[in-house]
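BUG: 3D viewer hangs when loading the predicted structure for this chain

Environment: internal workstation, default settings.
Expected: structure renders.
Actual: progress bar stalls at 90%.

Input used:
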Amino acid sequence: MWAQKETTTTRDVVASEIPAGTKFTIPAGARVQITQSLGGSYTVMVPMGYLARIDGRDADAIGEEPTQKPTDKATADKPVEALCWDQLRTCYDPEIPVNIVDLGLVYGLQVTPLPEGGNKVEVKFTLTAPGCGMGDVLREDIHEKLLTVPGIHEADVQVLFDPPWGRSMMSDAAKLQLGMM
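C-alpha cells produced before the viewer hung:
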C-alpha cells in the first residue's frame, strides 16, 4: 500500500539506501515519510532526500508493528511449495508496489527433501535492471522469509540475469495495477 505517512524514528534503525542497497543508520529522532509498506518492509523518504528500505522486524522504530512469521494454524493445510510461493508474494521491490512473483522476477522455485528431515528450497530470481543495487537486499528478504515456512530448513536464493527481465514477464494483474493495460 502507498502510505504517505510522516513519522519520527524512535530509535536508531539500519536501513538500505534505494536503489544502491548500501546499509546506513537512520538516527533516532529523524523525520521520515513512509511511502510504501508492503510485504512487511517499509520504504521511507529520509531527511537527506532519498529513499530507504526498513526491514519489517524494525518497524517499531517508525511506529509500526513488527512483522510476524506465519502461524501453524494458517499454514497447516497447504503444501510446503505453496507456502513458499505465498512467502515470495510478500517480497517487494521497494520502488514498485507489486510483489516479485507478479512482476515476473521469480524464474523458479524447487523444494527438495533433506536426508536429515525437513526441506531445502531453491529460488532463482532476477531484477528489473541488472544494475539495481537492491539485489542483495531482495535476496536476503527472500531467504529470511522462506526460512519462516514450516518444514523449510535451508534456502538457496540465487540472482540470475539470463534471460533478462522484461515487462512481458509481468502478470496481467501487475500490469493492471501499474497502469500498463
